[in-house]
Write a structure and sequence with these properties.
CATH architecture of the largest domain: Alpha-Beta Complex
CATH topology of the largest domain: Spore Coat Polysaccharide Biosynthesis Protein SpsA, Chain A
Low-confidence stretches: none
CATH class of the largest domain: Alpha Beta
Helix content: 40-55%
Number of domains: 2
CATH superfamily of the largest domain: Spore Coat Polysaccharide Biosynthesis Protein SpsA, Chain A
Number of helices: 13
Distance between the termini: 41 Å
Radius of gyration: 19 Å
Length: 303
Amino acid sequence: MTSPRVSVIIPAYNSLATVTSTLAHLDSQKEDIHEIVLVDSSPPTQQTELAEVIKQYPLVKAVFLKEKTIPAIGRNIGAKVATGDLFLFIDSDAFPDAKWVKTIVAQYLKGRRLGGGAIALPDFQMRNILAIAQYFLQFNEFIPTGDDRQKKFAPSCNLFCARDIFEDVGGFPEVRASEDVLFGLKASLNYDFWFLPGSKVYHIFGDSWQRFRSNQFLLGKYVAVYKKEDTKDSLKKALFHPAVQACSLPLVPVYKYALLARRIMGADLKNIAMFLGVSPAVALGLLIWSVGFFKGATTPSNR
């Protein structure tokens, strides 16, 4: 198998403060990259600033959209513009490890054409309680520990997919959140989905209380929306009845915390210590997530 042409695809919105870091880290790996497709839907003023920034990165193909666009649509547009054989997806609030592209290409050459990598916390957020709590709340299944193994999905901020597989799956479902989960679940029905702990991306978290609260609520809501819509079994559908949800609401964060803690305890000592140190914030985040889940489960979906 010959080395693939790598297309890195980045959806962006109001991310000038972070996407510059994304591009700089990718530029240091440019010998392994065919092109970088940046799909931005920021307001015109910020797009003008971004256009100036990307002039120093010849590999960047910029697609400037006139209206705010959800990430899933941005990724699908990027995939249509891309000309590579292998798509690497990363977000505009993340930056890759120095060997990110090489690591994925090496796995591709072994026949692993679909999967994702680990998520790590940037050094500058290692003492930020809200950032650490969000890290464990959102990416506890994707800590950079252990051996290569198969999973059913991975976060879209560190995802790779051969072009033909992406097209066969039909791209990302164009929904507000959890599109990476839905994409992975569909793709893994017919293709092996590999998790590569050695392929790391550093995710930058919003460190304000408002961002913390809104993000956890949103994630909980859309998990419920998609679970409810994808459930065909009548008995399982009954679990989304408002009365059932109201009774189970106090139990959901307890169950989620126990599940999360079990995963973290299988990691290294550093992550275990970090998790224990932010446990109150994690518990609060799970409570907010549960309220969002209740909202999504008991109201009609508008996606």
